[in-house]
Amino acid sequence: MSITLTQLRSFVAVVRTGSVTAAANELVVTQPSVSAAIAGLARELGTPLLERDGRGVRPTSAGEAFAPFATDVIGLLDKGARVADEAAARTGSGLRIAAVTTAAESFVPSLMHAFAGEHGDVHLTLQVGNRDEVVNLVLAHDADVAFTGRPPRGDRIEAYPLWSNDLVLITVPDDELAGRAGVLPADLADRHWLLRELGSGTRAVNEGFLAAAGLDVPTLTVGSNGAIKQAVRAGLGVSFVSRDAVAAEIDADVLRTIDVDSAPTTRAWHVMRARVGPRRPVVTEFVAFVRAVAGTAD
Asked: What is the pLDDT of residue 210?
């Protein structure tokens, strides 16, 4: 079997973008070259990997099964090249951290600062995204370690719980329900609901609550925690968010919470890393440091 990196990169790009055209633009090559690379890969594997899906393409069952392996090969080779470059330059190690928006806006910077104080030769970077984006960064080996509220299922990522991630329903200070205990979901049937963008874990929590409560309410998609908070303050609606995201506003009494019966269960923040590939010492040290700060180390 003779599979090339060009074939793997072309296949992964098409799976990620859902289009040969988009993949070609991303890779800065021609569409025929992408199509030829994927056709060659399919011949090597002896099975079609893509099929038509409207105007785009999607992986076949064989392509779906092969995609994680192709992603790992490309990601690990790219990571290996970076590590080799660090070793050749005899510089400090690099650590690429990813975090969902709420974590990045609350506790992650302080953890990075504390770790940097003990490891001055480590170059830290932070990339912020929603849950799906952060998980994909880890799976593609584009992030060494990540913070999220709910780790994905499967055996390609290992995750460790840290501390509680309490979810609260925020509203304006003069909301008549803010001071009442045990508000029923039915009492919220006249409210507008504010949601984060698709792929956000917070959005999934809100949608899950509405579905479980049987609430068919108007929704408005707002693309960030900051925008959610401002929209609530403006009286546009309510939303479940992490308490970590609104602690300052609650303390300042510019936002209040509604005590909802059958509210989403409390979750935990997690630190996670890829299970596949060599263990870099700096990643192991960082995960151990974070777990020690959280008091959850073995």
From this structure: 95
Residues 66 and 84: their CA atoms lie apart, in Å, by 27
pLDDT in tens, 164-187: 999 999 999 999 999 888 899 999
Is residue 294 within 8 Å of residue 163, measured between CB atoms? yes
Please determine, for residue 193, whether its predicted confidence score (pLDDT) is greater than 90.
yes
Residues 6+ apart with CB under 8 A from 199: 130, 131, 132, 133
Residue 170's DSSP bridge partners are: 239, 257
SS3 179: coil
**Residue 94 has which token pair?**
């690099």
What are the phi and psi torsion angles at 25 (to 5°)? -65, -40
Distances (CA, A) of 8 to 40, 143, 191, 203: 10, 20, 48, 33
Question: How many CA atoms, within 13 angstroms, populate the side-chain half-sphere of residue 6?
Answer: 12
